[in-house]
Structure prediction request, 356 residues.
Amino acid sequence: SGLAIGIQMLMWGLTGPIFGAIADKYGGHKAICLAFVFYILGIYFLYAGPNTGIFFQIDLGLLVGIGLGGTAISIPMSIVGKHFPLSNRTIAMSIVTAVGSLGYFISPLYTSYSLIKNGWVDTLFVFTIFLFIGLIIAFFVRSPSAAQSIEKPNNQSAIEAFKEAFKNKSYILLVSGFFVCGFHITLVGTHVPKYVIDRGLESWTAAAILSLIGLFNIFGSLVSGYLSTKISKKIILSAIYALRGISLILFIFLPASNINAFIFGASFGFLWLSTVPATSGIVAHIFGTKYLGILYGIVFLSHQVGSFFGAFLGGLFHDLYGSYDYAWYLAIALSVFAAIIHLPIKEEAVLRLKTE
Prediction:
């Protein structure tokens, strides 16, 4: 399953810009519906089709990974961003993030219950039903037309937008910072359950941490979106990464206890995806929303590369040294790095937008 999850994360990241380009050119509903088809096929084959050996890697890794590339956070965020002006764009994006976080909170609770009560086949069948509901809803999602757009029309091509972005130092810094976000999230989400057991706590404590992360992520996303309308987004991002480092330091150096574990789950959950509204908001502010799907998709690709290394290095360090200590030290160092590199970001529109 480890290989399949690794493939899934990479496919999720690699296909994000592709679905972003489809959403930007042909409409958000077409991109999301297409992604849902891949997602549904992946889950369906896991319980009703060929699902052993290489087929397991294809089902859970390739198909589900492609599905996530168009249904997960980056594409809905880019579509919502096109509908709102700068003044309240990050608020709208934070609401999308928070609603997604609600699923992250409910899903583990249902899955753990259903696996015991109903078995994995019925559990996956129920997930397939929810995915079909998502497919139907996605059909009604619409990107604004040229006449409805809040920005003036321009003739910039996707290739020109890509080149413009990678010549912008602030964009490069955002891409680098989001790598750290992905590293943190997957390191914690993948390895904290075993880490707390290694420290003498019970398995239910690990499950409680993940549920608390999902719950407090809802509040963190909303607060981040609100603050992004009041103060500099780059300051918010620097603060989030710095606070993640502090949270990790306290978690690994304080005595192991359920209370400390729950405090970590709540605090890190508050910071979990609170980076998303500010990061996507800066991308939209600098370059406009015409190619927000592909440009934020590239930023999210960096996130998924970080996720891959968070999962891989966490396991590697544990195998080599018998503990996760060095993985946590690296995560803390990356927190400092991310907190610093966001400070030079210039939150100003490119000259092209100023002169249009």
About this structure: Residues 86-117 form the longest helix (32 residues). The chain is about 80% helix and 0% strand. The mean pLDDT is 89. The domain at 2-145+156-355 is CATH 1.20.1250.20 (Growth Hormone; Chain: A;).
